[in-house]
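debug: dumping io for the single-chain case to check the tokenizer round-trip. Nothing else runs in this session.
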Amino acid sequence: MAMLPNVFVSSNVETDNDDLLPEGWYTAQIVKSEIKDTSTGGKYLSLHFKIVEGDFAKRYVFANLNLVNANATTVKIAQQQLKKICDALGVEEVEDTADLHGQDLQIRVKTQAATSNYPAKSDIKDFKAAE
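debug: decoded output
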């Protein structure tokens, strides 16, 4: 249990949709990556991108690439995305994803519409070499 320094009244805090980034291309770097298990026995690569230029510098966007999955199409899409990341960074082979960290690349952010279960979110849809 933890005692807060002051009483928190949630109705006194306004929420907004400022979490969404405007759609477009951003210069970013991969700053964190890890392999995680899916609930169905697969594995995905979780990537954390930090925007490094412009009005939204220091904001983060995330991508998950399902590299091990029973659905072959899902794996193919993840491999294609990882190839685009590698091509953008000039990397031919990757064994440790730390080799992808700290290098500039361009990411294209689009807004994924809200559903009945999830709010709208910024989603990475493409990758290319930094200009």
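debug: round-trip ok. The first strand starts at residue 24 and ends at 37.
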